Automatic annotation (TrEMBL):
The keyword Signal applies. Residues 31-43 have a biased composition (Acidic residues). InterPro entries: Peptide/Ni-bd (IPR030678), SBP_5 (IPR039424), SBP_5_CS (IPR023765), SBP_5_dom (IPR000914). This is ABC transporter substrate-binding protein. PROSITE patterns: PROKAR_LIPOPROTEIN (PS51257), SBP_BACTERIAL_5 (PS01040). Belongs to the bacterial solute-binding protein 5 family. It comes from Ornithinibacillus sp. 4-3. Residues 30-53 are annotated as: Disordered.
Amino acid sequence: MDIKNIKAPLLIVLLMMFFIIIGCSKKTEETITEENEKEDEVTEETKEDTTTSENSVLNIAIDTTPPTLDQPISTSASTRDVSRLIYESLVTTDADFKPIPMLAESIDISDDNKVYTFHLRKGIKFHNGEEMIAEDVIASMKRWEEKTALSGEIFNGATWEEQDEYTVVLTLTNASPLTLDTIATSKHAPAIMPKEIVESAPAEGVNEYIGTGPYKLTEWKEDQYIHFTKNEDYLTLETETNGLGGKKEALIEDIYFRLVPDSSTRLAGILSGEYDFAYGIPQDNYDQLINSDSVEPVLVPGSNTIIKFNNVEGIVSDFEFREIINTALDYEQIMMAAFASEEFYELDSGYMHKDVTAWASQAGSEYHNINDPEKAKQMLEDYGYNGEEVVIMTTRDFQWMYNIGVAVDEQLKRLGIQSRLDVYDYPTFSDTANKTDLWDIEIQGATMVSTPPQLITLSTTWSGGVNDPHIPESLKAMETASDLEDAYQIWDELQQYVWEEHLPIINLGHSYALYGINKKVQGIEMSTVGPVLWNATVSE
């Protein structure tokens, strides 16, 4: 074939293919452009949906007023939840309750585990505009040691010293595997405050609530509300949010904690939209929240539900009498009376919450929920009970506490014990708890902690609590153990001991708290140590 004869037809074919390709390319380019424009539109719509207004407000209905916002002096869950907007610590806990840096940028630990060097983050400002430096940290940590029993044996004889403005050195006399866990606690938290506020604080607590957190206190109108506003100078970490650490953004301008003691009023308010978030919704109303178009029900593992004995005076200060009561009680019936359905509670003998997996233990479970009233009646007869009155103290401000009080009172009466139920408002209840001549049994909840030595239920400083030297000695041994494995072994043996030999409380189990959240609110992280409000948004 002559090559010359195919050049012209080939050229025509090539030209046709070229124009087809150009046309297709142009069409493809137009399609991509159109799709990109659509994506841009979607992105803008998404931004509009998720970006909060400058005047966004979160209204929270709480069931009780915090006794104080001064973290180091209070074990109250309401103090913990509300004050964490204001305060931060050197370290905090991640989602697995392990310590991670917060106001410390990094931490160096000596080979003998006795010297901790905290390198502070620079540029962190208090709400009064002053920069946080080493002297503030040292003053705050020393005050925390003085005010809380949680510091225990670990910090006995410890020193806090300034190496430079941004470096603080903690030197311990005894090495402990629990040092950072203890500093990271969210109960009795070692909040960092300005030195001048710490040093001028009277015994009953600081006069000003100033911290480094993403929100600052604007107004506390007693018995009405606590108002927080966004801290415009807050310097967040850029690491991923993790538990109580990592990135914190104040995306809501104003947060109000509104005191609403009546549970039916809280329920009506969350359903009507008056409140965006509500604490302590009665479990009986769970179905109402489920069927609501505007509200999402949230169940969160809550506190240990406990029956606290007066271990220092009165008839129940006798371990043998406490054994009789424990043998008789039907835990299941008591918890059902409190929480209405099995989905709202779980029987558990563990003093440490099961979610704190490093310390969860079932030691002593054979003494949990014995539920043998006939045996208990025989024990009571053998004891020689003479009709001494047993006073049970509770409050109506928390319905579950009242219901447990009623259930325990009824079961003791059936056993043949002369019991009396004293019911107080919560502030009076808290005050009366410190007067051990006025009660024998107290209905209580114990908030989650990250290590056993932090348990208020085993503290000798808790009014009417532990009255056995073996318990604080064992907790001290935990704190100075060679490693975590040895510390856990001590803990496991101690939990067996408290069930078998002392019984300062009856740990019924764990409850699940019911909250209501308006569906326009996004990003509230619900945890076993209370709701986390930073990074949350409220849509228009």
